[in-house]
Amino acid sequence: MRFFSLNNMILKVIALVVAMAAGAACLDMFRAPEKQITGALLVRSIEGYQKYLSSIIPTKCKFKPTCSEYSKTAIRKYGSFKGGLLSIWRIMRCSPLTDGGVDYP
């Protein structure tokens, strides 16, 4: 029975952390894009991806700039919420059916 209560406590802590992160993201929406904490975290995580993972994976991007550069630019320009949505939209458009090309946020 102790194991069950420990799992519940872990789930509650995880739910609390997720709720706090969502609350921070909601409060960040009202700040200027260059002052958003979540935007800075997203940009840092993209830079980490570019530095460590992107160098290992071969590049086959049809768009200029690459999706990670597009995401960084969109987040810096529009903030974490709208920039994140634009980034998701760009990644969804990256398919064999598209021609690619030059695309800036």
Describe this structure in words.
The longest helix has 27 residues, at 2-28. 67% of the residues lie in helices and 4% in strands. The mean pLDDT is 75. The chain has four helices and two strands, in the order H-H-E-H-H-E. The N and C termini lie far apart (53 Å). The chain is mainly α and 105 residues long. A two-stranded parallel sheet has the order 1-2. Helix 2 (37-53) packs antiparallel against helix 3 (67-78) and helix 3 (67-78) runs antiparallel to helix 4.
Could you name the key traits of this structure?
105 residues; mainly alpha; two-stranded parallel sheet
Give the N-terminus to C-terminus distance in angstroms: 53 Å
Q: What is the typical, i.e. mean, pLDDT?
A: 75
User: How many helical stretches?
Assistant: 4
Which structural class should the secondary elements be placed in? mainly alpha
Basic shape: globular
Rg of Cα set: 18 Å
Q: Give a count of the beta strands, DSSP E runs of length 2 or more.
A: 2
- Uncertain ranges: none
Oligomer: single chain
Q: Which bin fits the share of residues in helices? A: 55-70%
Q: Sketch the major β-sheet.
A: 2 strands, parallel
Strand order of the largest sheet: 1-2
Quick take:
The chain is built from four helices and two strands; from the N terminus they run H-H-E-H-H-E. The chain has helices spanning 2-28, 37-53, 67-78, 80-93; strands spanning 63-64, 101-102.
What does the secondary structure layout of this molecule look like, with pairings?
Elements (H helix, E strand, L loop, with lengths): L1 H27 L8 H17 L9 E2 L2 H12 L1 H14 L7 E2 L3
Parallel strand pairs: 1-2
